[in-house]
Design goal:
The chain has twelve helices and seven strands. It has 356 residues and is of the alpha+beta class. Strand 5 (161-165) and strand 6 form a beta hairpin. Helix 4 runs antiparallel to helix 5 (115-122). The chain is globular. The relative contact order is 0.07.
Length: 356
């Protein structure tokens, strides 16, 4: 973890899954151990958690276990290999336990575990019991991490991903493409769609930010300032200065999330092309973000009702029309009134442009 750089390099855990099976894998250098997840939900964090309950392992792990005190029966992977400093300050075990609890609660409710539940879990700030994730704390442990002023609070969640393994074998990657999932919206990318090429993701969706912000650039030619990530980061850092008072500046994102979920459901019904929906979701998310950022910079309201600019017209042209009267997909929670209102406004914008 941390690519061996910084103050707290750590060993790591991974979840590997397809439609038929899921595995929890932990790595320590070239050593590894794996456990099959046979039922329920499962969470990991940046800490080792296995004892001797693995199903597969590297020969080196088995040799260490067999020749250790008490043999394999008394061996604990996490006790033997965990780094005390990294485990303590990374708060991985507390975060893993908390996330596991969130997933279990969602899975136990009707209609079962949904994509929205995954988004919500990754955006969670309830671990510390603080409404403000920037509240004082030595490490600021949470599921959704924000950097702070304490000595070891230099880390933040830089991006989030939820993979939806669908019944037809396709995979939809719901990505923020931005830091701070609590202030972001997840957008769908169909990984099995030939039209969703690396060039589309890099050049059209601006998903290749540079390592630093370039205030003089426009996002082209390797510049970072016009990228989705850095544009969002400007707003993120502005909100962090007074999180509770400014959190509402991106409240439109919550409404957009519902619209995007409904739009993806219409792709599954065969009514829209995957790439066009990916483009529309990213375009509308970026347009909403830029509106909010521009309003903040000019001291106005973060919610704009003005006529679309040329940039927004291009975004709307790329969008697939969403029928707000469409019935909710089976197993999905109904669209809220606010999301339905936004969906109708998007449709109306499309109709106005066609008349013009």
């Amino acid at each position: 973890g941390n690519h061996g750089a910084g103050m707290l390099p750590y060993h790591n855990a991974f979840l590997l899954a397809d439609r038929d099976s899921a595995w929890h894998v932990e790595t320590i250098g070239t050593h590894w151990a794996a456990k099959e997840i046979k039922h329920g939900v499962h969470a990991i964090s940046n800490a080792l958690s296995m004892t001797n309950n693995f199903d597969l392992c590297s020969p080196s792990i088995l040799q260490t276990a067999v020749h250790g005190p008490g043999g394999l029966a008394h061996f604990s992977l996490r006790s033997h290999f965990s780094d005390t400093k990294g485990t303590l300050f990374g708060c991985g075990r507390a975060r893993q336990a908390h996330l596991q609890g969130l997933l279990e609660v969602s899975a136990g409710e009707e209609p079962g575990f949904l994509l929205e539940d995954a988004f919500r879990a990754l955006s969670d700030h309830s671990l510390r019991g603080q409404a403000d994730p920037t509240a004082p704390g030595f490490v600021g442990m949470d599921i959704c991490m924000h950097a702070g002023a304490a000595p070891v609070r230099g880390s933040q969640t830089t991006s989030s991903l939820v993979c939806h393994l669908q019944a037809d074998g396709s995979v939809v990657a719901w990505v923020t493409g931005t830091a701070a999932p609590c202030l972001s919206v997840f957008k769908p990318i169909w990984l099995c769609d030939a039209a969703c090429t690396p060039a589309l993701l890099r050049d059209v969706l601006l998903l290749s930010p540079g390592p630093t912000f370039d205030a003089g650039g426009d996002g082209s030619g390797g510049s970072s300032s016009g990228s989705l990530w850095w544009t969002h980061e400007l707003m993120h850092r502005f909100i962090l200065q007074h999180y509770r008072a400014r959190r509402h500046l991106l409240e439109d994102y919550a409404v957009l999330q519902e619209v995007f979920l409904e739009r993806a459901a219409l792709v599954e019904d065969g009514r829209f092309a995957c790439a066009s929906v990916t483009l529309s979701c990213f375009a509308e998310a970026l347009t909403t973000l830029k509106r909010s950022l521009a309003a903040v910079m000019h001291g106005g309201s973060a919610i704009s009702s003005s006529k679309s600019t040329d940039e927004e017209t291009v975004a709307a042209a790329a969008a697939a029309t969403l029928m707000s009267t469409a019935a909710p997909t089976a197993g999905r929670r109904p669209m809220s009134a606010s999301a339905a209102k936004l969906a109708r406004s998007l449709d109306n914008d499309d109709e106005e442009e066609e008349e013009e």
